[in-house]
Structure formats: C-alpha cells, structure tokens
C-alpha cells in the first residue's frame, strides 16, 4: 500500500514540475487588432510555430519578410542597405499606406529639407512640409542579436502593419512611414539561435545549459565581437557604417532600439545622466513617449520601470546617436528571451517566457508608432527646430570651431575626419593659413591666440549637425552636477559601511570620456571664434577615403621617391607605417628598425624608422614596396647611399635591428573578455593584416609553445586564467619566456602575471595584499609611500581620459616623440611601478586629468606614480603588461602603435 502511495505522490509531483507556470503573455493575442488581409500570411503559417515556441533564424526571417512584402506590396517595400561581415544582407522594411508608398522619394526629400534648413527657399516652406508630411518612425531590432525577443517581435510588428485593416492601424500607415530593421546585428543573433535551438529543452532552471552558452556564442557582438550598440560613436564596423548611410538618407523623427533582458520592461524616460548637448525639449518628449507606453502596458497589467539603469550620456548608443541627430531616440528592454531562453524561472518562482518578451516589444512598438502619429506635426516641428537652432547656437555659442591638425600622421587625422563624415558632420580643409584669437589646446587646457596652417581640417559648429559634432569632438562632456553629487553621496555611505555589508551600486552605466581627438591622438583645438577662411569641403569617395569635394583628390596618399640604390627608408610616425612593415615581413622581405635617430642622404629620421636594405632583398622589392606604399598610404624614401654626413647612425649602423616575422598566439575562451579579443582580432585581421592563431588555454597546454614567438592574453578574468593554466602551465610559460618568448598581458591578463605565486613581473596591482607586501618601485616617491592620508584602494573609474608620460628611449614607444599621450583609464586596476623592469608609460604628478569623471581624493592620488605600460626583460624574452586595454572599442588610434610595438619589435629585441 505504501509503495502505491509513494508512486502516486511521485507521479503528482512529476506532473506538477511539467505544468507551465501561468504568465500574462501566454494569454496575449498577437492577432487581436484585425481584421487582417487573408492574402498576407501570418509568420506562424510560414514558420510552422507560434510566437515564442522556437527561435527563428535568419533564413526564417527572410522567408517571412519577403512573403509579407510580396503579399502586401502596396504597403511594404524591402530595401537592402548593406552586408554584414559574414556576408548576410542587411535589409529594412519600409511600411506605410499605398499613397505614401507611391511618393517615398518625395517624402524623403521633404524631410531632407527639414534636416538642413539652409535648403529651404520660402519662409513658409518648413510649415508646409510639417503640415503635410508623414512622420518617420524607425523600429530597430536585434542590435544585440542574442536578445532574441526583439528579432521575433519584428516579424509580428511587420505583419500587423502590413496585413491589418483595423482603422487605427490604417491611420498609423496614413500618417507615418515605419522603417523596420529586423536584424541590425545578424551575426550575433544567428550564433545564439543556432546554438540554442540545437540544445534547448525548455528548462526554466537558470543553471540549465541552455541559459549558459559557451564562450563567444551568446554575446551582443558582431562577427568580430565588437559591440554594435557602442559603435555609433566611431562607426568602426561595416554594419554600423551601412546603417548610418541609410539613417542619414531618411532622417527619422523617432528611433527605437529594442533590447533585453531586464527584470521587468524598461522604456524612457532614461536614467541620468543625459548628454547635455540635447535640448530641453527632448526631456518633454521622453515623458510623452514614456506615458504612451505606460498606458499600453497598464492596460495589460504589465510591470515596467523608467529613469533607472539606462542613461543617455555616451553618444555611441543607438538611442543617443539618433537623439543627437534630432530624433527621439529610445531604448526598450524586455524581460523574456535571450539568455533566458524559452522559459526562465524568476527568484520569486514566476516564469518569464520568450513569448512574454515578444508580446511586450510588440506592444511597445505599436504604442510608439501611435504616440508618434498622435504628435506628428509636433515631432516634425521638433526635428526642424533641432536643426535650425543647432545652426543658430553654433554661430553664437562659446565654442565656434574645432580645428584638427594632420601633423606627422595625416592618415590618422583623415580617419578621424572620415568618422565625422560618416556621421553626417560637415568638415572643411583650409586652403590657406588662418588664425584664432582664442584657441583652446586639448592637452594643456590653455587658451591663446594661434595660427593654423593650410591643410588643417576644421569643423564649424554653425551647421545642422552641431550637437552631434560637439558631442563627438568636445574635450570633455558635461556631467549633470546633481548626478555627480548623488555619486559622491553613495561613496560616503559606502565608506561608512563595514567590510561585510553590501555596498550601493554607483550609477555610471558606461564610460564618461570619449573625446575623439584625444582618442585618435590628433592635435586639436576648439576656438571661440570662426573667422572666414578659404577652404574646401571634404567628403568620402566610394572606397571610403577622405577626398576634397572640389577635385576628388585623396587627402592621404603614399609612394616611393624613386628607385633606391641603398635602401628604402620610412619613418614610424604613422599607424600606416606599421601596416607597411608587417606587409613586408609577411612577404618575406628583410627589414630592420633603427633604435636611434637616423641620418640618411642628409635627411633626419626619428628612432623607430624602418630600413629595407637593397643588398639583402630580391629584385622584386623595388616594384613591391612601391605598390604597398601606395596601398598603405606611406611615403617611402629611396636612399642612394649608406653614408651619413653627420652623426653615428646610418643605414649600415649597428643600431639597425633586424626584424623577425612573429608567430602570434592570442588566447580565447573562458575567462577572456570577448570584446578585448574582438578588438585584437579586428585590428590584426582588418587593419593591419597580421596573421595570428586564436588558441584556448586548454589547447595551449597541449601545444608546443616553443614554436610561437608571441602569446597574448587579452583583458579577462585573471582567476579563470590562472585556474586554467595551473602551476604546470605557468611554469611552462616562464620557461618559454626565458628562452625568448614574448608574453603580453592586457588588463586582467596583465594582472595574472603580477599575482603572488606567478610573479612574472615585480609590479603589483595597487590595493591588493600582494602590493602591500611588495617593496616600492624605483620611481615611487617617498611621499606617495609614506603618506598616512593616502587612500588605500582605488575606487573604480568610470572611463576617464588621463595624461600619461612616455619614456621616449624605449623600443615600445617607437613612433611616439611627444612626452605625453592621452589614455583611457577604467576600473580600479592600477599597477605599481616595476622594480626590475622598465616603466615605459607612467602616470606622473598631479596634472593628469584630461576628460571624464574621476573620484576626488582618490583617483589622482592613487594613480600618480603607477604604470600604464611595463616591460619586464626575462632571460632572452619579454613580459609586457598593459594596465588598460589600448584597443578599447577600436577608436583609440592614438594608442595603436603602442600596442603593435609589443608584437612588431619585442620578438626581435634580445
């Protein structure tokens, strides 16, 4: 009897476990807003499953959008606007009423006039356009492609707009043009759903395999693991560049970026801080759209939150970038799908589903279009006023002009200009010398009268893109004082709490500094005046090169001065020179680097100059280097003689160090920051064409590491690194370094080598027990060591730009002749000086701050006397440590050579 009772109880419990938890969205009807055209197929009819039952892949999405577009051709048009790195077509759907669809080009050109009020010819032309033109609403999905509810919601929204004959839907189509992008980031989405669909069983347990994807599979990032939702700042990726081109053709008034997964749904108003380049009217629109969404969600009884977590400060998000272009840019975050899969059990036992997430995005999307239509004329007026007042304020504000000097690396300056041009910012090149009564230097923060040479680039702020241009270029973005005050109050409360008491979270969401001239390492000034100067606009040609608009002449070019009889010589003052050097090494040519300043044919070249001798290379060198110099944009001097007319360093000097072609391993897998690895990957493969071998630590333990010249640990988790290597792996690395290997660590990878028991460097991470027990480095000041008032631990820096000091006598700083360089500092990982090695780039003194938020009585006090770049000679090899990631988001072009030098030169330095 007991056996049967136990069996019965077990069966009841088993049945209870598999009863789906009730959720509101399970009763949500996606097809309640009909009637629908019978000729337009539902997504479920095409895919064979209902929303939320399965993850749709890219091919399934294409099937749906093409079928809908074909069946509702009077309302829908599919436009291909680019291609992803994995060669997937990037497409949007344009959806509106048949009457609007018949005059799309006319409507687009009308909006273009509002986007640039200088095109208007009659006083009442703007008012006429505003009164008679549909509002453009852009619905952007799958930016973070693994946040899967957005992708699915796009299909349902497309069907609703294309097929519904509901009067309200028809009104939306009459008064709005909806641009629907179902897959902003197709690679991220495809990686995730291919894995999830292969392994999911629908478990709601958060520790189930389907909620914990392997490294690299469930990320927000594109093919190169670059976060596209941060890339609008510098547009380094082709998906971003393609989207920007389309965006600037259509100039939407509303732009919504759909994401996930939060505890409950988020929509604006955003959290503080908000970028201060936005006008006050923007805040009113946040309230209007927020209340519109709230009404829709309240009808469903759904929870949501506003004004928390998600700010609008950094201009590289896909809500802030459209906002700075005059749209009402917004982020929506849903709670279901993505890493939570088909089902996810919350801490209170309730289950949230993929269908929940889809339903909420679907509802918010339609509510947004409804709000836009309800305020159509006001939105168009706001958009027009945004552009009109930008011109007016740019002409009379304290900042009138930004000046960018090409300097010794016009290619780097041109890349900065290209970044601005991709964003629609107007840039000019001076045809004559000009001056300013008050020019503010970015590095010294001083103002003085100054003259600028012909060939300088400048951005006048009296233009429609003033607000975006200022956000990208200004030396420091203004933080809301009340927000700063609140962070300092949180700090005070945290400091009063004991060690075991949880600390309050600081409210910084992202970096607080990004000034592009500082990041690109381009000499820049902002001026209080903008006198007339003879100039020409610059633009981008079809290949993406910066050219003058009048004669289409490329700004940057390269080539050789003739046919060398002794050697070809090119200085290392440009990033492009590194590309040329790597190209020559890869093709097997013999190349050397001068470790001292060089004199050739009566010309002076700086240390780090590359020399390609004729006698040691084949005849093909002459033709090949001429071709590569043009391709890379490098000026190469053809030397006639090895004789130097003065000094002790010429082409044949012992100071010429032969360079080796390095065989490089970059660590991937668990513990590695995917974005740090991705930046290295893109830099090596796309910008400099450097072959490398991605390798997990497990594979490294089996490989013959003595076959490799360089092993590079990206930023990551040092504890995971150490556990994966084990004591045996660490000993192998030490032996490999001693015998000539180059070991490079970035961020957490560098911290690993500074840990007690590893000790591949005598530097330590500040504030750790290891640092407290270590003796001071050679450059640490007595006051810094002895001060009892100095705080013990750094507070995490939310991405600020600091001034670092360069040792100009070390090979790792070849190409850097200035005493200082701007660097980004994030987090609380500060490295003490090395006792035994070289502190190549350091933080010295108190005048360190350039841009962004730093903690008073903490950041500068602790950062001063620490190292950014450390070199530890070890036997015949090298350990090289970067305290911060020099490749952050791929726009720190000013630090590119500082990073490349470790793989370009270190293997050859014995």
| Helical proportion, percent range | 25-40%
Biggest sheet character: 11 strands, mixed
Supply the CATH class of the largest domain.
Answer: Alpha Beta
Q: What global shape is seen? A: globular
If you average the pLDDT, what whole number results?
95
The span between the termini is 83 Å
- Number of helical elements: 28
| CATH level-two architecture of the largest domain | 3-Layer(aba) Sandwich
Number of domains: 4
Structural class based on helices, strands and sheet pairing: alpha+beta
CATH topology of the largest domain: Aminopeptidase
The stretches of 5 or more residues where confidence is low (pLDDT under 50) are 1-25, 780-788
CATH H-tier superfamily of the largest domain: Zn peptidases
Question: How much of the polypeptide forms β-strand, as a percent range?
Answer: 15-25%
Write down the Rg.
29 Å
Total beta strand runs: 37
């Amino acid at each position: 009897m007991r056996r049967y009772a136990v069996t019965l109880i077990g069966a009841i419990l088993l049945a209870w476990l598999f009863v789906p938890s009730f959720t509101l969205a399970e009763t949500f009807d996606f097809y309640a807003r009909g009637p629908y055209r019978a000729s337009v197929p539902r997504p479920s009819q095409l895919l064979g499953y209902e929303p939320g039952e399965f993850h749709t892949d890219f091919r399934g999405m294409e099937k749906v959008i093409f079928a809908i577009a074909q069946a509702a051709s009077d309302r829908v048009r599919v436009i291909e606007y680019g291609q992803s790195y994995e060669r997937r077509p990037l497409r949007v759907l344009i959806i509106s009423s048949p009457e609007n669809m018949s005059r799309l080009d006319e409507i687009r050109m009308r909006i273009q006039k509002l986007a640039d009020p200088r095109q208007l010819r009659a006083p009442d032309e703007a008012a006429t356009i505003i009164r008679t033109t549909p509002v453009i609403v852009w619905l952007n999905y799958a930016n973070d492609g693994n946040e899967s509810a957005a992708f699915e919601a796009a299909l349902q929204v497309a069907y609703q707009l294309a097929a519904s004959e509901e009067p309200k839907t028809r009104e939306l189509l009459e008064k709005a043009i909806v641009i629907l992008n179902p897959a902003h980031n197709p690679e991220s989405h495809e990686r995730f759903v291919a894995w999830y669909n292969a392994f999911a069983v629908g478990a709601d347990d958060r520790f189930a395999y389907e909620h914990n994807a392997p490294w690299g599979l469930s990320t927000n990032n594109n093919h190169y693991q670059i976060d596209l939702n941060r890339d609008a700042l510098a547009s380094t990726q082709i998906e971003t560049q393609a989207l920007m081109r389309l965006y600037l053709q259509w100039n939407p008034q509303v732009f919504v970026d759909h994401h996930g997964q939060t505890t409950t749904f988020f929509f604006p108003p955003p959290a503080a801080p908000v970028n201060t380049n936005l006008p006050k009217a923007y805040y009113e629109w946040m309230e209007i759209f927020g209340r519109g969404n709230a009404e829709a969600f309240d009808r469903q009884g759904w929870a949501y939150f506003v004004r928390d977590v998600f700010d609008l400060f950094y201009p590289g998000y896909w809500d802030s970038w459209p906002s700075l272009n005059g749209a009402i840019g917004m982020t929506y975050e849903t709670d279901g799908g993505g890493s939570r899969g088909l089902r996810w059990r919350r801490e209170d036992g309730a289950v949230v589903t993929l269908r929940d997430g889809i339903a909420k995005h679907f509802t918010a999307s339609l509510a947004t279009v409804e709000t836009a239509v309800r305020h159509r004329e006001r939105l168009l007026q706001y958009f027009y006023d945004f552009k009109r007042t930008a011109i007016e304020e740019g002409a009379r504000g304290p900042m009138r002009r930004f000046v960018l000097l090409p300097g010794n690396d016009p290619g780097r300056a041109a890349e900065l200009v290209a970044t601005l041009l991709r964003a629609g910012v107007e840039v000019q090149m001076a045809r004559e010398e000009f001056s300013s009564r008050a020019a503010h230097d970015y590095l010294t923060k001083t103002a003085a009268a100054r003259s600028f040479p012909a060939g300088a680039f400048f951005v006048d702020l009296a233009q429609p893109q003033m607000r975006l241009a200022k956000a990208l270029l200004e030396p420091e973005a203004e933080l809301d004082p009340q927000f700063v005050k609140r962070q300092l109050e949180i700090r005070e409360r945290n400091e009063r709490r004991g060690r075991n008491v949880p600390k309050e979270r600081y409210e910084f969401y992202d970096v607080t500094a990004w000034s592009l001239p500082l990041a690109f390492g381009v000499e820049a000034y902002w001026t209080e005046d903008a006198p007339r100067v003879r100039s020409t606009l610059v633009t981008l040609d079809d290949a993406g090169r910066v050219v003058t608009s009048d004669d289409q002449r490329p700004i940057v070019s390269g080539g050789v001065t003739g046919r060398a009889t002794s050697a070809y010589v090119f200085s290392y003052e440009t990033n492009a020179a590194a590309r040329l050097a790597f190209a020559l090494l890869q093709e097997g040519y013999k190349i050397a680097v001068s470790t001292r300043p060089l004199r050739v044919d009566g010309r002076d070249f700086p240390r780090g100059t590359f020399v390609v001798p004729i006698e040691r290379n084949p005849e093909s060198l002459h033709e090949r280097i001429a071709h590569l110099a043009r391709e890379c944009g490098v000026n190469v001097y053809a030397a006639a003689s090895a004789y130097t007319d003065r000094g002790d360093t010429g082409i044949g000097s012992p100071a010429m160090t032969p360079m080796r072609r390095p065989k490089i391993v970059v660590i991937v897998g668990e513990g590695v920051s995917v974005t740090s690895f991705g930046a290295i990957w893109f830099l090596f493969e796309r910008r400099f064409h450097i072959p490398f071998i991605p390798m997990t630590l497990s594979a490294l333990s089996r490989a013959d590491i003595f076959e490799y010249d360089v092993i590079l640990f990206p930023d990551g988790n040092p504890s995971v690194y150490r556990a994966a290597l084990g004591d045996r792996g660490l000993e192998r690395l030490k032996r490999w370094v001693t015998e000539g290997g180059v070991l490079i660590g970035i961020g957490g990878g560098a911290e690993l080598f500074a840990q007690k028991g590893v000790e591949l460097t005598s530097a330590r991470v500040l504030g750790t027990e290891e640092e407290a027990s270590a003796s001071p480095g050679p450059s640490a000041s007595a006051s810094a060591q002895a001060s009892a008032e100095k705080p013990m631990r750094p507070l995490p820096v939310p991405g600020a730009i600091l001034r670092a000091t360069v040792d100009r006598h070390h090979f790792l700083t070849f190409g850097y002749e200035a005493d200082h360089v701007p660097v980004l500092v994030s987090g609380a990982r500060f490295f003490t000086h090395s006792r035994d090695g070289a502190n190549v780039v350091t933080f010295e003194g108190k005048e360190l701050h350039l841009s962004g938020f730093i903690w008073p009585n903490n950041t500068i006090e602790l950062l001063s006397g620490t190292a950014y770049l450390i070199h530890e000679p070890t036997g015949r090899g090298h350990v090289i440590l970067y305290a911060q990631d020099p490749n952050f988001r791929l726009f720190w072009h000013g630090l590119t050579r500082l990073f490349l030098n470790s793989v370009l030169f270190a293997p050859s330095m014995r």
